[in-house]
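User: My advisor, Dr. K., asked me to get a structural model of this assembly before our group meeting. I'm new to this, so sorry if the format is off. These are the inputs:
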Amino acid sequence: MLTFVAKRLGSLVVVLFFLTLLVFTLGKVADSDPVRTYVGVNASAEAVEAAREELGLDDSIPVQFGNFVAGAVQGDFGISLASKRPIADELSTRLPATLELAGWALALTVVIGVSLSALYSRPGKFGAFMRFVFFSAASAPSFLIAMLSVLVFYKWLDGALPAAGRSSYGPYDDGTGFYVLDGILHGSPTYTGDAIAHLILPALAASVGSGVALARVLADGISSSLTSPWARTARSLGEREGTVLRRHALRNASSPALSLLAVQAGFMVSSLVVVEQVFSWNGLGSYLSGAIGVGDFPAIAAVCLILGAVYVILNTLVDVALAAVDPRVRLT
Amino acid sequence: MPFSRKSTLEKIEKAQQSGARDTAWSALGVGEKLSLIGVGVIVLIALVGPAVMPYSPIIPSGGQLEPPLSSGHVLGTDVLGMDMATRLVAGMQRSLFAALVVTLVSAAIGTLIGVAAGFKGGWLDTALMRFTDLFLAFPAMIIAMAIAAAIGQSLGSAMIGIIVVWWPLYARLVRGEVRRVVALPHVQAARVSGVKGWRLLWRHVIPAITPTVVVTASLDIGAVVMTLAALSFIGLGTPAPAPELGRMASDGMKYFLNAWWVAVLPSVVIGLLAFAFNYAGDAIRVVLRRTGV
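Assistant: The format is fine. Below is the predicted structure of the whole assembly, which you can bring to the meeting.
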């Protein structure tokens, strides 16, 4: 087990290094000139020269890469070309926003996946209809689900659920940036409830697709588990069907579901970027699309690095968890 | 999974016994047939649609934000008064063409690398697969975003971004298939009788792996359509007035609460495209597996 963990950690470092190298290289070959974006088209030659120095573009490429890596490790991603402020400062309020949404969306994915998996494997016409519905939901782009949910819950139901932003009250000054947590810490049910209400629609829009995918994998695993010899043995020992399902089938089906969940976390990152834009959610995703709009590549690189690192680390954690649960994994 | 897989199986067996020529088609369930017809209709619309539409997709032809079913504009107009139906059909053509190119190029690159690694073996195999695994470990969508953002806002750069993250899947798949096929008795027999090198590859290995690659590619088109749409939605496609579905949806968000159709209709079209191709790809996979092609 220890060798397995060491190996996975080693490859984690390698992947992170190449991820950084790739993003850095892309910045160098990027279409737009960072200095021009920074100082504007009409700037004087002296201003351009000064900006080159300020942005550290006078150093040789290897030195620039070294600085980039050293900065990224310490959470310093350089200066935004658009706002001329340190990117790390701009991201510090946005990272909790995205993490809060991602956490709720992931939890909702599991809820949707587990509760729908039973419907998925129903026999007959009803099951066929459910599979049709699931297939449609899995093919719908997350922004379509987001828009439809806003139309239904905000427009037609007359503002039953809020459809923009994170809170009606704004952040606490000494808050953690996680609004639900802040509300609980300050003992304010109104604030907490309001933050949760703001979370429902975005989290739903980001989780329907991956929830349905999870339900499919769980349903496949459960149906093959229920027909396996050990399930028959359990039944012959007098266990009830519900117990067989819960104690044996669901547990055995959860290992592929767990690795799928890691993959889905990657998809979720991309749907979060889209969903944040629909709901004016002030997180990394809306920051990213803003940066894309003005060609602010250092900011784009920073967001890509952070999201990429989260994804890679999450995958490593899941691999280790799987190995802990299932010894066979360690051999590969 | 699609409707009535079990009855599909029975039908295939029956058809095989009777030796019917149209085995593949008669083996399909209702839903699968409908999905294949749906894909046919979509391809037809995308091919001939833009030519028969009465308006131009990039020139205003009516009032601003006219709702669907208004006279002359079945699906309404957008904020510049351009006909929605015309733009949607043009957008379908663009995204289908782009998805097809992305899938073909990714499959070609992946096959090349997978065959080289699986057939040659040795250090080349190790090196190529390390490289492939590295790309597989990257978060696809984020890398595609970074690449597309670096090259500039256009459909072409979004396509390049997706190809870069898509080929490793094919390389892994093909490499495994090649190694499996090379060990098959008939290939071994050919090798024993002196067939080697390019001839062995061309006559025995490539034909054996082609169906797998084709099926995977057909299953992939729906996913590529969705990925392209997502990139376009966050601003990494060709800017307006180009009729690009993802971009149309995100631009339409500004007037969304007053004029839902500008944002919702392009999103629905993307969903329909993805749905039809996902479903049809699944149908093809089921049929090929059961008929043992």
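One thing worth pointing out at the meeting: Chain B touches chain A through 46 residues (CB under 8 Å).

User: Perfect, thanks a lot.
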